[in-house]
Amino acid sequence: MSVYTTEIASDKIPSDNVIHQRLFSAYHLAKPFLKGNLLELGCGEGRGVELLAPLVDSYLGIDKIRAVIQNLEKKYPEHQFMSGVFPPFPFEDNSFDSIVTFQVIEHVKQDEQFVREIHRVLKPGGTALITTPNIKMTLSRNPWHEREYTAEGLTALCKKYFDQVEMKGVAGDDKVLEYHERNRASVQKIMRFDFLDLQYKLPARLLRIPYDILNRMNRNKLKEAKDELVKSIAIDNFSLMDQNDRNLDLFCVLTK
Fold first, then answer.
1. Which uninterrupted H or E stretch holds 165?
2. Which of 74, 131, 242, 252 is a good FRET partner for 25, with 20 to 30 A between their CA atoms?
3. What topology is assigned to 14-255 in CATH?
4. Quick one: pLDDT at residue 10?
5. Residue 148: partners with Cβ closer than 8 Å, 6 or more residues away
């Protein structure tokens, strides 16, 4: 089973390559922070299992789509997976040494409860990593997201429960930023037809199908126009940086 949409980028679709590498980069950047028993909240189809699991004592991934979890259980029988909607989390207090949740919090209605639950199940001295899009680099409303965050907003939310909050970001190099600016220009051409500003006025559920269709068309167009650029972008084109409004994603490091 595949759950790929433009929201869940695929490493198998050429026009998704830049987005896939951006999402995958978080797993590479997470490696120095991990230890002990690891929980991944929102593991999806297991983009990072093979990379992260060998670094820790145990890996447990949770996601809401049961069919995807069943596939992961077959593919990785040596690791643990479970399906469920969260928050809350079905775990005891102080259960995990490390927690990662990449590009998930923006989909969670109860984001404050989500952070509170991360704190509850993380062991003292443990580390949790949260990534989410930087709203200051967003090109249009994403109807799959409940909200997006500034670095200051996410920091304030996390400091309600964590004393130690370090805000960093996933940054792209010149090649990535060239793609981003080409994407911006292309999206602006599409958005000029939204002269009534409907993307912000209509309910999200009415926008999801047209958003996905237009997003796929746009990615295909960018690939056709600059195929070598799209194909050439890889993990090495992304890096972990200090907080900056030009970071593509927020990378929040929480220590209990």
1. strand 164-172
2. 74
3. Rossmann fold (3.40.50)
4. 67
5. 106, 132, 133, 134, 135, 138, 142
